[in-house]
Every structure is written in C-alpha cells, then in structure tokens.
Amino acid sequence: MRVAMIGTGYVGLVSGACFADFGHHVTCIDKNSEKIDQLRSGGVPIYEPGLDLLIERNVREGRLDFETDLTDAVKAADVVFIAVGTPSRRGDGHADLSYVYAAAEEIARSMDGFTVVVTKSTVPVGTGDEVEAVIRKTRPDAQFAVVSNPEFLREGAAIEDFKRPDRVVVGVENDTAREVMRELYRPLFLNETPIVFTARRTSELIKYAANAFLAMKITFINEMADLCEAVGADVQQVAKGIGLDNRIGNKFLHAGPGYGGSCFPKDTLALTRTAQEHDSPVRLVETVVDINDRRKAAMADKVIKACDGDVSGKTVAVLGLTFKPNTDDMRDAPSLDIIPALQKAGARIKAYDPAGALEAEKLLSDVEMTSGAYLCAEDADVLVIITEWNEFRALDLDRVKESMKGSILVDLRNIYDPADMKGRGFNYVSVGR
Ligand SMILES: NC(=O)c1ccc[n+]([C@@H]2O[C@H](COP(=O)([O-])OP(=O)(O)OC[C@H]3O[C@@H](n4cnc5c(N)ncnc54)[C@H](O)[C@@H]3O)[C@@H](O)[C@H]2O)c1
After folding, report:
1. Cβ–Cβ contacts within 10 Å for residue 201, how many?
2. Secondary structure of residue 329 in the 3-state scheme
3. CA–CA gap between residue 58 and residue 355 (Å, rounded)
4. How many domains does the chain have?
5. How far is the CA of 86 from the centre of ligand 1 (A)?
6. Sheet harboring 195-198: ordered strands across?
7. Domain boundary, last residue among 197, 222, 241
8. Number of the ligand 1 atom closest to the C-alpha atom of 266
9. Cα(244) to centroid(ligand 1), Å
10. Claim to verify: residue 159 and residue 83 sit in the same structural domain
11. Atom of ligand 1 nearest to the CA of 106
C-alpha cells in the first residue's frame, strides 16, 4: 500500500518508519524543511531509541522517503495520515485544530481516486466530521472516507509500542475504508493484536479517555505520596500493595513531581473543555488537572524546604530535564516549572540531561548546562533528580557526595533507597517515603 504521512514529528516519523517496516511504501511530509533536509541526509530530528536504524533500513530498501510538499505523495496514496500537532489553544485550553484543518484542505486539493484520510493526531470528538466537511467543501467531487486511528505510543519506547501495541483503535464508518485499515495493519494480526473497530466519534473519545485515566492514576498515587509523608507511611509499598490487585494493576503508580509531556497536560485539559461544552463535565478530570498544576509548583517548595527554607545564593544541580527518560521532548516537563521557581527564590542552577539539553536551552534561561552527571554535581549545595534516566540509577554516589559542597539530595523519582542514602551521609529527601 502507499501511505502519505502528513506531519513528521514524534508520532508521524515513528508511525511512518514502522509502516514502511511493515512493507508499505511511505512518504513522510513536513512543512519544516530543516527537518526534511536532516532526514534526507541521514539524520534524525528527534531522540528516540532505535529510530535511526529503522529509518536507515527502510530508506535503503526504498520504502521510505521524505518531502516538504504533499502533492505527489497524496495523489499516489491509498491512505493519507494526518499526524500534525494539536497543542493547547492559548487562553482556553481547547485543542488547537488549525494544523489539522489546514492539512485536510491541502490533502483535499491533491487527492486522486478513492482515498482514506486517517486522523492520527489526538483530536476532540467530532473533529472527523469537521475534517470530512473541509475536504468536501474544498473538493466536492472527491471520493474519500475519513477515519479516526488514535496513536497510543509512548516516547522512549515508541517503536516497540507501535509494532507491539496493546490494541489498535480504528473509528470507521465506511466498509471500503475498514478493509483498507485492516490491510494496513495486517502485519499486527500475526501477533494477534486486538484491533478495535468503532464508530468515529467513539474512537476519538477513547484516546482522551485513555490519557485522562492514566493521568488520574498518576495523580492518585501522587496524592497518596503526600498523605504518606504526613502519616509516616511509604508510598512505594502502598503502590505495590494496591498494584498487585489485578483490578488496579501496578503501572502508572510511581509517585513523582507530577505528569508532564506532550500529551497528558494538553489532553486532560482539552477533555475537560469538550465535556463542559457538551454540558457533561468530567469533574474528576478537572480535579486531576488542578492537582497536577499545583504539584509542579509544590516540588520547588519541597526543594526549598529541604534547604531549611532558603536556596538564595545556593547552587542547585539538576539531573534530568526532559519530561521522562529516553526522549529529548521538553514539552510541559516538570523541570520547566521547578527550575524557574528555584531561580526566583535566588538559586543558581546547573543541569545535566542525557538528550534534552538542546531543547531545554530554548526554554530555560540562566541555566549552566553541563556534559555529565558528575560535572553537574560538582560544588553543588543541593542535587535534585527530576527525571529518572537510567544512568542516574547507577551513579557512584560516594564520588557524587565527595564532589558536592553540600549533602542534600532531593530525589523526585524515588530512584534511591532512603536508608542507603542516609548511610552514605546524604540528607536525602524523596517523595512519599
Ligand atoms: N508525542 C507523543 O508521544 C504522542 C503520542 C500519541 C499521540 N500524539 C498526538 O499526535 C499528534 C502529533 O504529535 P507529535 O508529538 O508528533 O507532534 P510534533 O509537534 O512533534 O509534530 C508535528 C509535525 O507536524 C508538522 N506539520 C504541521 N502542519 C503541517 C502541514 N500542514 N503539513 C505538513 N506538516 C505539518 C510540524 O512541522 C511538526 O513537525 C498530536 O495530536 C499528539 O497529541 C502524540
């Protein structure tokens, strides 16, 4: 099959490369010519483990190419994916659908023969209807069907998630398009991936419901962590004790600084807006959004409290800036709230992140970026772990302690053992323990 992927970001590039690896011919298109130039010359614009090799192999075998203009690829395509961004609209928190509709209009102008147009971007309920209307208006003669196929991949494990997903959700109300989608995902039938066919609106809502549920689970354990601190319990044992119950499950029960990233914050907010508009508010999710926003600010206070209430003139070394490990994505990362709050309180910030420094430098000011964890810790009064990259789990802690000026270590991801840290002479503060 021939696939055109409009938008070559975290989702479009991974999906495009994986579909090519399934054996389809894929053209990834992006308006950002720097990205396309980089891809054409063998580079990869994002950090995602394994993606470079996957792209290289599929380009070499002639199944994957890159364009800035969609005309030829859309003309030739059986399936066109829309994988552009849907960020929060400034001011009201609704999903900004302008990129989606602009892409739909452009696609319409180039479509030739029956074309399945698939929305892979995360879009509010009813967007498929609107995409259909845009295409119909632009090209009244066009033969097409609009399908919803939300993406559930996680950055950092994106290729594995795409190739071995828990499920694929397809919202489709046209029989030919259903068969096209079945054919596209046929390689996944081999490993018996459940493919859930639904009506289009249901599929659109499934994506938001999934993200809201996961955000709620994280927020639940974060509140339990605060309660643990207040009553002298251990949140990790609470998480284990409840997580072993199959009805609850042990995933997404790690207490931390609050969820961030390119999806949960904007998607939970957009869901609350959709629900309010339809006079059916999701108060649980509204509360989750509110608690999570407050939590990020509270994490800076936690660091300040660990320093006896004053970080003014102190050097705070931060390990991990991205919203989670194994990505360079800084969108809505907790570090973006915590660091400016510490700076406002007078702290000097040094930082190290294995992949996110370039992105972080665009979003933070007056931060001294260092090239390794030990360099970062050198002469620091306080060390704060914000993101749990694997390399921070195996640090030579005696070396870290020796090179620091102070002995305070605030571990917002609970990667170390409190008793061990105390034994090594750290003033160790973690979350919910
Ligand atoms: N990042 C994730 O982990 C993830 C996971 C699941 C779903 N999603 C959803 O997928 C969508 C894309 O997310 P992302 O993180 O890949 O975004 P991104 O910002 O990384 O990439 C979007 C790309 O689309 C390009 N673009 C915008 N308009 C275009 C147009 N008309 N023609 C060609 N290119 C255009 C942009 O230049 C950009 O490179 C969003 O709706 C997001 O919510 C993201």
Report:
1. 17
2. coil
3. 25
4. 2
5. 7
6. 64-67, 25-29, 2-6, 79-82, 115-119, 144-148, 168-171, 195-198
7. 197
8. 43
9. 36
10. yes
11. 31
Q: Does one domain contain both 36 and 111?
A: yes
Which residue, among 350, 349, 369, has the nearest Cα to 359 in the 3D structure? 369
Q: Tell me the two tokens of residue 411.
A: 């571990």
pLDDT tens digits for range 28-80: 999 999 999 999 999 999 999 999 999 999 999 999 999 999 999 999 999 99
- The band of 91, judged by pLDDT with boundaries at 50, 70 and 90, is confident
User: How far is Cα 376 from Cα 319, in angstroms, rounded to an integer?
Assistant: 8
Please state, as a whole number, how many other Cβ atoms lie within 10 Å of the Cβ of residue 198: 16
Q: What is the CATH number of the domain that holds 410?
A: 3.40.50.720
DSSP string, 240-274: HHHHTSTTT-STT----S---SSSHHHHHHHHHHH
Instruction: Tokens 């795409």: give the residue.
Output: 162
Gap from CA of 205 to ligand 1 centroid (Å): 18
Contact between 156 and 48 under an 8 Å Cβ cutoff? The reply is: yes
DSSP string, 198-253: E-HHHHHHHHHHHHHHHHHHHHHHHHHHHHHHHHT--HHHHHHHHHTSTTT-STT-
389, 308: one domain? yes
Who wins on pLDDT, 188 or 91?
A: 188
Q: What tokens were used for 153? A: 């991949």
Q: Return d(Cα 379, Cα 359) in angstroms, integer.
A: 25
Residue 134: partners with Cβ closer than 8 Å, 6 or more residues away: 101, 104, 105, 108
Ligand 1 atom closest to the CA of 46, numbered from 1: 20
Q: Among 197, 230, 265, which residue terminates a domain? A: 197
Residues 295 and 362 in one domain: yes
Q: Which residues line ligand 1 (CB under 6 A)?
A: 6-12, 29-32, 35, 83-86, 99, 102-103, 106, 121-122, 151, 153, 155, 262-263
What count of other Cβ atoms lies within 10 Å of the Cβ of residue 408? 21
Please give the model's pTM, rounded to 2 decimal places. 0.96
Q: Which amino acid is at 44?
A: V
| Residue numbers of the domain that contains 327 | 199-433
Cβ 27 vs Cβ 65: under 8 Å: yes
What ranges in 378-416 are assigned the alpha helix state H?
A: 397-403
